[in-house]
Amino acid sequence: MDATTKPLRIPPDMATYAEKHDIFELFQTLVRSLVVDKPADPIQYLIDMLKRENTDVPRVMLLGPPASGKRTIAKKLCEQIGTIHITASNILKDDSDLSRAALEYTEKNQEIPQDLWIKLIQQRLLKADCVRRGWVLEAIPKTREEALCLQEAGIAPEHVVMLQAPESVLIERSLGKRIDPVTGDVYHVAFMRPESAEVAQRLERPQSLISEDVIYRQLQGFHREAHALQRTYKNCLKIVDADQAHVDVFAQVLTFILSRHRSSAPYTPRILLLGPPGSGRSLQARLIAQKYGLVNICCGELLKAVAADESSMGELIKPFLESGRRVPDSMVLQILTERLSRLDCTTRGWVLHGFPQDLEQAEALQESKFSPNRVVFLEMTDGVAVEGLTLGAIDPVTGERHSFRLQHRLRESEAEVQKKLQQYWRHVEALQAFYPQAVRVRADQDPHTVFECLESTLVDRLPKVLPDRA
Predict the structure, then answer these.
(1) Which of 62, 118, 261, 300 is most buried by its number of CB atoms within 10 A?
(2) Up-side HSE of residue 390: CA atoms within 13 Å toward CB?
(3) What CA–CA distances, in Å, run from 180 to 62, 185, 188, 193, 238?
(4) What is the distance between the alpha carbons of residues 342 and 410, in angstroms, rounded to a whole number?
(5) Angle between helices 212-232 and 167-175 (to 10 degrees)
(6) What does the alpha-carbon distance between residue 280 and residue 155 come to, in Å, rounded to a whole number?
(7) What pTM, to 2 d.p., does this model score?
């Protein structure tokens, strides 16, 4: 960092490091935890937090009416992301003074006092397994008052899912409820049958089978609180229709849980567009740069500009461009990194296309500390690409490719286009493996539709990556 220059220039690798390791979010988590927990020794408390494997653990509340599938979804979710499944019953099983006090109320068929119940939940969530792996609270809280008490105690979920279904469906499921006496898993005759015939044969009706009137009153009780709970958690809530196959319900819930809320951290877009010839990379890069004020960098145009400025590097690459030979990667990377390190790129961000074209170039770009934080593959079939490049035309004013209404035809033959396509497909699989979080967008649509798809992937944070369960 050079303190003698104005404005102050921060090395681009500092921003890359901060984004890669979520430094800003880490500070937010540490400060929030200090304010909520108010430890007697804040320094040691922060040291202990930083020693954890991960401070960004899932904190999920799964709510919904009776028979909406909460137990099934919660179990599958915990198995998938490795979190702790918390229910009212297993909270009471803890061997502690608080749980014994709560059991005295339940044995007398009395309601557990609110303050005691909140302390029980807080005690369970502060255990090492929940702190380290995160938690899924099933059917907790049940009321807005309980939700507000949890917030006052510092129990704040990152994601809240509320399942919903028509009352007729929920009543039918409740009446068809079955339990596996071996595992305790819950099944519904009309909703989720066990895949194993052996399990299906041993299913039993619940010992206390409730009537339709009781089920209806339970549903009414949930609906009275549902809207208040939705308002309480409106900033982190997703409502999911539970009147569909449980695998589809789970897929929607998991996608939401893996998503991350919009961050207030400083963010400099570094966008890489990849795709076959004719996929519209130049047009989409221009649209993105115009809307978001980014620097549009086409590697091919950059090389031509450097060759024309009569600099020492320009003189070196000019023979390659004039003869149609490939400019050595070392020269291209030197030119590209010099451009990406300029103040406009480091402060406004950039959208790059035309580089890298193979795995070696991608690795070299990564090692140069100018790695992209958004990668998009524009996908198009060879037939569409060939048609667009061989039958298209060039706008003499803007230089854009079109297929109608313009003055002169492109001079690329089908053989030339096929050669470029073969070169692209030869390396695309390796590039996709190198950028595993890249987004794929169909490019054989209206350009503005493609831009809308691109834009939706650029403004949201990347989803969390599931831990390796192997």
Answers:
(1) 62
(2) 15
(3) 22, 5, 11, 11, 30
(4) 35
(5) 130
(6) 48
(7) 0.67
Q: Decide: 334 and 341 in contact? Cβ < 8 Å.
A: no
Tokens representing 135? 């938690």
Residue 380 CB: number of other CB atoms within 10 A? 21
b/e map 281-305, b = 16+ CB within 10 Å: bbbbbbbbbeeeebbbbbbeebbee
Paired tokens of 449 = 């539709």
Name the average pLDDT for the chain: 83
Of 353, 216, 331, nearest in space to 273 by CA: 353
Nearest alpha-carbon partner for 237 in 246, 229, 225: 229
pLDDT band at residue 199 using 50, 70 and 90 as cut-offs: confident
pLDDT at 406 over 50: no
CB 50 within 8 A of CB 151: no
User: Is the preceding omega at residue 7 within 30 degrees of 0, hence cis?
Assistant: yes
Q: Are 77 and 130 a contacting pair, CB within 8 Å?
A: no
What is the length of the chain?
Answer: 470
- Condensed to tens digits (0 to 9), the pLDDT of residues 185-196 reads 777 766 666 667
